[in-house]
Amino acid sequence: MYLQIIKNDLRKSKLTTGTIMAFILVAAMLTSLAASLTVNLSGAMNNMLRSAKALHFMQMHTGKVDMDQLRHFADTNGSVEEYQVLEFLNIEGAEIVIGNDTLAGSIQDNGLSVQGKKFDYLLDLNGKVIHPADGEIYVPVYYRQEGKAVLGDTVKIHGISFHVAGFLRDSTMNAALVSSKRFLVSPADFERVSEFGQLEHLIEFRLSERVNYPAFEAAYLDAGLPANGPPAITYNQVKLINGITDGIMIAVLVLIGILVIIVAFLCIRFTLLATIEEDYKEIGVMKAIGIRVSQIKKFYLAKYGAVTGAACVLGFLASLPLQMPFMQNIRLYMGDSGSRFPGLLCGLAGAVLIFVVVMLYVNGVLQRFRNISPAQAVRFGASRESSKPGRSFRLSHNRLFTRNIFLGIKDVLSRKKLYVTMTMVLVISSFIMIVPYNISRTISAPGFITNMGMGISDVNIGVLRTQVEDVQGKAEEVAARLNEDKNVEKYRLFTSRMLERRTDEGTLEKLRVTFGDYAAFPITYSKGRAPQAEAEIALSVLNAEDLEQNVGDELIVIVDGTEKHLKVCGIYSDVTNGGRTAQANFNMQHGEILSIGVAVTFRDRQSVQAAILQYREQFPSAKITGIDETIGQMLGPMRKAIQKASIVATVATALLTLLVTTLFMRMLVTKDRYLIAILKSIGFTCRDIRRQYLSRSITVLVLGVITGTLLANTLGELVGVAIVSSFGAAAFRFAVNPWFVYFISPLLIAGCVVAATKLGISGIQTLPIAGHIKEA
Q1: E strands, 552-699, where?
Q2: Domain residue limits, the chain
Q3: pTM
């Protein structure tokens, strides 16, 4: 019986059923897609880390390593399972030629390495440990993604040629946000090139399970082991940095999915109300002859169970091919998850979840059957709704609008409760379209780097101790050249040193501090401000959390052999040097310099690229990059991933708006069939009535889009901060594109609303006058 009822009902309302089915399909598809991508990302990352036997703790160090001291520490520390020291030969970017191009413009610290003996293996694209032959070189997969290298290219390093035999996955340095990249060569080739680069040591440990990483780092430093380099990297940071790009993309998809599900409930409500309006008399008759409400509900639950079940299955199936473009980056950087079954199972679970939630919601809406009066239903054939016409808004007082527009606006004001749901749909649609776009645009904006610990400049010149011996002398040489350049508007030097900090327990810990004039190239602070006085210091977010410091607290550092008390004046986000940095503005005479960065702006912005090429030629040992190169190389993969999510959001918004507006207008026409018949009988043409309904849609559209746009730029900014702060940029504001937010987005939504309204009210012309007046 139920099967026959479902078939008859589907034949009767093909458009409505097809629309609601398509809508649930979109919700199920997005939920399945997000669930499957999450599982595949986690599985691929864990599989890569397991195959590579990823390190748990690594300290980069420039200088000699006392192996006896290291061995004693490893033997006496119960957390250490394995340890090794790998060599990393830092090579100037200008001396690495891939094909016909150099890496002079790369912001990465590029270097050669050999395969690890115990762990931290470098893998090929099949997930196998690489053992290169002499003359072969394996290039980081990052450069394949950037289009700088292809299989079979020739790589020349200081004139020594290598053949690109493949690309490697590096569990530690894979991501674009990591500032170092390892090229893999054979031990013999490493020896051939070793005289041309600056040697660094990677001191690595594999630790026991449930180890406390901060406690182990403290033990490492307390033992006086080598730490002349960037802050240590732990396993948790390795996992975070590997998953961050695709994780943010998935987070945006989840956000879209949640909003789509909310709209799905509204859409289902529209459909059910429209169906109840169409079947109002039949429901009343069934109640009048003694059929229980639970039995009546079963008819509708059977129909919506079939429609929702089919839509969820199709949504799950549709999510499978959609995974391909979203999985490209995951597969390239981390490989496959090992088995597709967990991803398929979680995707299916997402679709099942949508089915369960929809059916529970349908059951809740069907409780309205209890409020239907059999007598009223048999007499009127439709529900009677009260409305407040508003005495101050009369046609006789109207001087602004035409008659049809006025009647449309008046209906919206008179039946606010009915139209508020449609307004909410348009608010959410604007939110879905604008927020992912704003996140994508914000990350792509030049000013975004101020939320990452770097000021805005045209060019950054880095003089690193890993590439030159006399860092101070080379930096002074660069500064002298900048003084002579009349096109230079301003420049500042920022010197990084490793200081010692005295803890509350009296022990000493390392603290990387950069000294310079931060007022000239300001960054964004999540709390407080830049250091101005000599007794002030600003900390990165991760440092502030590790040291349990806040604005106003005091730090003690050792400067030129004496203690110096510093007040924390600001906290900022940073993604450089493992995110653990500090800023100060006082002078010190002694202490080894790690690096000196020179930020430069030019008077003629058109000549920046020419200036970059000129300075690279003059200072080949320095790392010279423009602002666009820096943003593109650091955030390129993340930006592309979020752009994909933004495109999905735009398409989903257009589809949702079309579907929901069509359903709403069909419901409204069904509900107003008596009023439409009256209007026709007193001389209103079908064209007049269509204009009235169109004016209703436009009134709701204006209210919904304005509210949605305001929420997207306020509440949406908080959501964007929550998503993007997961990789360290904790304080930022949306970089809004006024053309998209205030013109293109509303225009696209308006086009969908107008088109859907015309489709939804297409039945007005065929609605008979006599039949409905007689029913009433």
Answers
A1: 554-559, 562-572, 582-584, 593-602, 623-626
A2: 1-52+244-384, 63-228, 389-445+633-776, 469-620
A3: 0.71
